[in-house]
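Running co-folding for nicotinamide-adenine-dinucleotide.
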Amino acid sequence: MGWLNDDVALVTGANSGIGLAVVRRFLAEGARGVGVLIRNAAQADSMYEEFGDKVVVTVGDVRSPESNAEAVDATVRTFGKLDTLVGNAGVWDHFASLRRYEGSTLKATFEEVFGVNVLGYMLAAHAAAPALRETRGSMIFTLSNASFYAGGGGPVYVASKHAGVGLVKQLAYELAPDIRVNAVAPGGTVTPLKGPQALGRENDRLSDIPGFAETVADAMALGFIARPEDHTGHYVLLASRVNSPATTATVLQSDCGWEIRGRPVRKKAQ
Ligand SMILES: NC(=O)c1ccc[n+]([C@@H]2O[C@H](COP(=O)([O-])OP(=O)(O)OC[C@H]3O[C@@H](n4cnc5c(N)ncnc54)[C@H](O)[C@@H]3O)[C@@H](O)[C@H]2O)c1
């Protein structure tokens, strides 16, 4: 018996990084099946190769209301219900600072990053709410250390992830008592998280930044950089009706201690 026995989930941005690790973990916890919304049709085959009929793939853009509705319909049609929405697809701004922008590029970057990181979550919530109300299920969003602190990106990304906290609280308020709404906030994690097209960074991966993993590991209180699978237990906990029935409007931080980063200076024993 797993913690999510017979549950059905829908995960956006599920073909890599944290989303893929969540799909693997939910199925390992006994989920009946997982719907996935992914952007690139070429990635559908690898999802079916790994998970077979335990997944149903919808190809689309999280900024599209139709793609989100289609993903919910495909999940419910295939697996009979929906217990958990995991809004996870995201794009990062590669630390683009305010002074580096032309005005028009800033506008385009804002629209792209907020479109994916904020509107994408709202549209997924809107599409999934009716099915989740029927099962008294829950929503879980992937936020970030950048939801609380400066320095995890430039102003556009950090503002988008701060907006996610407001979204979680407002949705939790509006959808109670039927649907619990929570989030997981990972810190720096080794993934191929990409940049915005508006900055010409759509093929640039966070994990390819020279020295990124070492720099993050060195700055963190726990002294390592997380792997995607290090966060998945939090999603399982929040999805589990048995283990977190009283939890809503909560963000679980999974960031190796961002708030207390910097190591204490320890005196040598005399
Ligand atoms: N990697 C980190 O250090 C880190 C830290 C904190 C938070 N996060 C957050 O974790 C989440 C997952 O990112 P990840 O690090 O696993 O990177 P990732 O690139 O592996 O995953 C992001 C996914 O979102 C998808 N996506 C992007 N734009 C999309 C769109 N318009 N429509 C549909 N899908 C789209 C990508 O194809 C990809 O599958 C993001 O919300 C990110 O902001 C990542």
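Result summary
The domain at 8-258 is CATH 3.40.50.720 (Rossmann fold).
The chain has a mean pLDDT of 95.
Job closed.
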